[in-house]
Task: structure prediction
Amino acid sequence: MNDSPASSRVPTAAAVSHGVLAPLRTSLFLRIWIASVLSNLGFLFLSVGTAWEMTALTKAAGMVALVQTALMLPMTLLSIPAGAIADMYDRRKIALAALALSMTSSATLAILTFMGEASPWMLLAFCALAGTGMTLFNPAWQASVGEQVPREMLGQAVALNSISFNIARSFGPALGGVILAIAGAGITFASTAASYLPMFGVMYLWRRTPVPSRLPPERIDRAVSAGVRYVLHSPQVRVVLVRTFCFGFGGSVISALLPLVTRDLLHGSAEIFGLMLGTYGVGAVVGAVGLNRLRHLLSAEGLILLSTAVLACAVAIVALSPSVVLSGAALTIAGAVWMVALTVCNVQIQTMAPRWVSGRLMAAYQTAIGGGMAVGSWCWGGAAQAYSVELSLLAAAAFLAATLMLGRFMPVRPAPEVDLEPVKLSDPEVNLALTGRSGPIIVQLDYRVPAEDARDFYRMMQQVRSVRRRNGGYDWSLSRDVADAELWVERFQCPTWHDYLRQRDRNTPDELEVQMRARRYLRKGTGPQIRRLLERPFGSVRWAEDAPEVPNSSN
Result:
């Protein structure tokens, strides 16, 4: 029996060009976007407050840099599970729970600061808790962007979400510095907690209509494994994540060491620190606004290479500059190219993500950028403590320049314009009493291929292999009958019956087309012969007549 689509879908492409502000005409996206600006302001208040408070509590450069690590480390460790949760459950409810965690953490830190109980390690602990809340929130929020705007506006919507953070970064650090200087760290942390309330309210009032699933949610370990397997068997996704990690590793030096740059190189105060962060944020807004035009002039790879080269130069200028004006100008340029590169990588991931795994792919992106920034902050902070702030900045600039070679070996290619919605396949015939946990399920497909087409068929099946494995097929193999040269056998397995049904439900039109192209090499008039087998390991089956006799308890 052949699998056939129950309905056909044709890949769509954007028919018209939209400006960067076009998604704001969608009322739901507009409300969430405005609330995101306020919540991002609060997160920056927390970042500014803890970073500067740490310089007051300790002189150790490593501890100051660890603030950035504490904020980013949860993103590295928890993003993939958070993405799996976002794909498995209602994203709105997940967002509400995550916001509640961040609010509670910030409010508790404010109370402890008012009481005079805050210590360097306590600052790091509550930064990590607040970062955990945002790690849980971001995949649910970003993966739901496609539910808020039409697909042709997705790139602009992603850019606008980045702009929301950088509008906040343009004013937030300076405003946070003013609040810190006038009212102290406690009020700064309390302001962070209050800033999450608008987003909590918007999410609470959003009447989201989740897409129903005929299958129960996956186990969390299998959901995480499915996300990791999708990344491992998607070459271009892997390339984007590696490039994102390297860019975040080198670029993190600015966020990690800027308090020390302000204190030791520029001999500035909290207000100057806020001003420096503000110039960085202004540059990021400029970069995000200009990105739509830049994408028409350069490819994704070209934008990443240009951004990396310019960022390396800007970091070197910051290392050598004794002037607030020159450092501010360099930070403005650095902020612009930082935003351009990361938004390009973000859009690449989102436009390659089928709905069933979109949260997990966004989480993988967050892991890449968060991991790069967390590890980079730790490394650059250690280098600053062991040597000097200037040498650490120059080392980061050299690292960024070296990563330009990645463009030769791991180029980021344009994301294809394909339909990523899954295709409904006809249900397989079943004559056994199966449950969702029945398994393993072995799937075997027999193909009859003329000898002259064997080589081309084999090459095409390597693409089929990637499709099977990233959608949930394990132990894939392709064999050729030694007695019948035309007979090829494809074989893979799924852990349970439900896992097999999920694997079938994940096929997109483009992935089905890959399978159809392989079948074009079959002998004319034949098709694949499909067998679905329930594996019965030795000792797993006991028939009624084999059951031991139970003694009669009445005797």
User: Anything to note?
Assistant: Confidence is low (pLDDT under 50) at residues 1-17, 547-555. The chain is about 65% helix and 5% strand. The first helix runs from residue 27 to 57. The first strand starts at residue 441 and ends at 448.
